[in-house]
């Protein structure tokens, strides 16, 4: 069981992300990203479509759920966007075929899949509604979206049933995969710092204009909107709250028991149905053996499987609660018969009951009362704001109205595209740091009109005013001269550095100063930490000198030798890999099946507009 809600969230997201994506990268292709005509729809079959907005939301959701939150540029470099597009293609085809065959997923099956999801379970393995809601919320998934994913998964299983039960994968193929994983490259390399900007002669306007013309398409700005918006939060009304002693006393009587911090205990647990194994385990513990090591060797349980975390007495089954909370620190208990089987416990930490002092409790109660009462006022004020909107007031007039006791700032955002990109003639193009609902309201509201009041981020409410809609335009050179210069300079610095490096390398008869043997899973080359640099080295297909840019460095690299590292190929290794790769046998066959569905349901791809956004992002 996953130990942290963030890990649970990632588990949920990636299960949704990998429902159909067995291989991780497109095998039968996501189509040429340069093909197709412009339009809102990037994927379509006879009765379904997927918009560019939906695709970008999926790409952004995928990268935001990674621990390091890669930029859009890095996402394109590592091919994640292709994986997302491949997944979307498979989803739309599977669901179209399921509709064609009148397949359905019973509600009982949907409920079973939800209840079996580990990320939705509490420490005792029971389904938790709170974890279900919170995990989906943190993953950026609505219940409707998650249910759609479950239906897609079930449709896929029904359609693939005839070939899904393969349980053996060719040993030669498994060995080739292991060889690939253990590939080692002996390289020579030398690192050069990107030359200083002072070494570059400032270009004339003619040079910059020529650069602009060659890259003109990358400067194109699609249809965008300029908006004003007002954020309304409970804290705006806190100064209107007056709390008396009676309110505090009443709240204290209701909540005082909540401030008592119960004793908790960090507990290790193994559960088995086998009485002999349980007794053997306990006997070995008594002889001084380590609980977690025994759990691993006897039951193949990791630390994360045995550690229940800190639990209150009420969290435990009635059969074991009293026994566990009467035990001493580091005491091992059991076997205890519960409805789950025979359980053995060990108490590894005891956090005693705590009682905060009265002053701290009152202070916290005041905060809660202020928050609750200010939220009540906010809801009353929202009704008044709706009246002002109905009367034709604009957003500036609402902000200055007597609804608020202080001046509320109206914020401006310009040049926002339907996909949530914020364009600028001066600065870099960026992605709007707001939830999809915000962007949706921008484009669902008429120009010169106010949006409906909508809720984001808990108790925060928003109103938008659409100021202007801007037609698609390619800015003239004079408007974006600084941006053109920065992009020209970036290319020129690399070009000059390559020239300099080539002269030095040729003067040494192509001998490079450093040597290294690198593996595919290495993260660092010399002093340079760049997870993509190693990938690029393994993409080199010859023994010629290659030039790779990494941050503010130019790496000159020559592959001297490619070999397979020594490794032991044993039955356990084969069985583990076979278990994984036998499942991909389904994908080998389903590639042809999906191509058949693409023809049958007339799949149309239109990635041209999406590619334009990617080009803009990489050039900015």
Overview of the molecule:
The protein is of the alpha+beta class and 620 residues long. It has four domains: 210 residues, Triger factor/SurA peptide-binding fold, CATH 1.10.4030; 125 residues, no CATH class; 131 residues, Chitinase A, domain 3 (Roll), CATH 3.10.50; 91 residues, Chitinase A, domain 3, CATH 3.10.50.40. The protein is 45% helix and 18% strand. The strands form six sheets. It has a four-stranded antiparallel β-sheet. A four-stranded antiparallel β-sheet has the order 9-4-13-12, with helices on one face. The protein has a four-stranded antiparallel β-sheet with strand order 6-5-8-7, with helices on both faces. α1 crosses α6, α2 crosses α4 and α10 crosses α15. The protein is globular and about 85 Å long.
Itemize the secondary structure elements and their pairings.
Elements: H1 5-17, E1 41-44, E2 49-51, H2 52-64, H3 72-77, H4 80-100, H5 107-116, H6 129-138, H7 143-160, H8 171-181, E3 183-193, H9 205-214, E4 224-232, H10 245-255, E5 264-272, H11 275-286, H12 291-299, H13 303-306, E6 307-311, H14 318-325, E7 332-338, E8 341-351, H15 358-390, H16 395-399, E9 411-417, E10 421-422, E11 430-431, H17 436-444, E12 454-456, E13 460-470, H18 481-507, E14 514-519, E15 524-525, E16 528-529, H19 531-537, E17 546-550, E18 553-564, H20 571-600, E19 604-605, H21 608-619
Antiparallel strand pairs: 1-2, 1-19, 3-14, 3-18, 4-9, 4-13, 5-6, 5-8, 7-8, 10-11, 12-13, 15-16, 17-18
Helix pairs in contact: 1-6, 2-4, 4-7, 9-18, 10-15, 11-12
């Amino acid at each position: 069981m996953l130990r942290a809600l963030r890990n649970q969230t990632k588990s949920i997201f990636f299960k949704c992300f990998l429902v159909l994506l067995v291989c991780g990268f497109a095998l039968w292709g996501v189509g040429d990203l340069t093909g197709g005509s412009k339009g809102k729809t990037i994927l379509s079959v006879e009765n379904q479509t997927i918009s560019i907005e939906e695709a970008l939301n999926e790409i952004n959701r995928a990268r935001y759920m990674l621990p390091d939150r890669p930029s859009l540029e890095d996402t394109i470099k590592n091919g994640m966007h292709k994986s997302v597009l491949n997944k979307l293609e498979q989803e739309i085809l599977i669901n179209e075929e399921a509709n064609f065959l009148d397949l359905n997923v019973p509600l009982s099956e949907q409920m079973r899949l939800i209840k079996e999801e580990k990320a939705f379970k509490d420490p005792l393995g029971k389904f938790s509604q709170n974890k279900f809601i919170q995990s989906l919320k943190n993953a950026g998934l609505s219940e409707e979206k998650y249910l759609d994913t479950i239906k897609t998964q079930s449709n896929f299983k029904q359609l693939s049933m005839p070939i899904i039960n393969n349980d053996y994968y060719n040993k030669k193929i498994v060995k080739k995969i292991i060889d690939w994983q253990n590939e080692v490259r002996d390289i020579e390399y030398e690192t050069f710092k990107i030359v200083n900007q002072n070494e570059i002669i400032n270009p004339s306007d003619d040079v910059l204009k020529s650069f602009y013309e060659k890259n003109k398409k990358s400067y194109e700005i699609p249809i965008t909107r300029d908006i004003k918006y007002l954020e309304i939060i409970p804290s705006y009304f806190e100064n209107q709250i007056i709390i008396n002693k009676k309110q505090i006393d009443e709240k204290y009587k209701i909540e005082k028991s909540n401030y008592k911090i119960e004793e908790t205990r960090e507990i290790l647990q193994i559960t088995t149905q086998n009485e002999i194994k349980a007794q053997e385990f306990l006997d070995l513990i008594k002889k001084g053996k380590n609980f977690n090591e025994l759990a691993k060797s006897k039951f193949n349980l990791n630390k994360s499987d045995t550690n229940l975390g800190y639990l209150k007495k009420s969290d435990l089954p009635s059969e074991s609660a009293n026994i566990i909370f009467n035990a001493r620190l580091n005491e091992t208990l059991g076997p205890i018969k519960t409805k789950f089987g025979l359980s053995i416990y060990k108490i590894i930490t005891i956090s005693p009951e705590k009682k905060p002092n009265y002053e701290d409790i009152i202070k916290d109660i005041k905060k809660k009362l202020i928050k609750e009462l200010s939220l009540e006022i906010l809801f009353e004020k929202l009704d008044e704001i709706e009246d002002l909107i109905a009367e034709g007031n604009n957003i500036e007039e609402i902000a200055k109205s007597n609804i608020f006791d202080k001046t509320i700032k109206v914020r401006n955002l310009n040049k926002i595209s339907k996909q949530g990109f914020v364009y600028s003639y001066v600065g870099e193009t960026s992605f709007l740091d707001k939830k999809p609902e915000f962007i949706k309201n921008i484009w669902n509201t008429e120009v010169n009109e106010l949006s409906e009041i909508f809720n984001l981020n808990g108790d925060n409410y928003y109103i938008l005013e659409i100021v202007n809609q801007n037609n698609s335009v390619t800015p003239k050179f004079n408007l974006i001269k600084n941006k053109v210069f920065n992009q020209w300079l970036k290319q020129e610095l690399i070009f000059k550095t390559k020239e300099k490096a080539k002269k030095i390398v040729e003067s040494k008869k192509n001998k490079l100063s450093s040597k290294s043997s690198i593996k595919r899973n290495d993260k660092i080359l010399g002093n340079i930490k760049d997870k993509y640099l190693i990938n690029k080295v393994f993409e080199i297909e010859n023994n010629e000198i290659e030039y790779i840019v990494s941050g503010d460095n130019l790496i000159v690299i020559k592959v001297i030798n490619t070999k397979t590292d020594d490794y032991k190929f044993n039955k356990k290794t084969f069985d583990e890999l076979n278990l994984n790769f036998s499942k991909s046998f389904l994908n080998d066959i389903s590639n042809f099946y999906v191509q058949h569905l693409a023809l049958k349901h007339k799949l149309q791809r239109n990635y041209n507009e999406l590619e334009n956004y990617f080009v803009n992002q990489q050039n900015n």
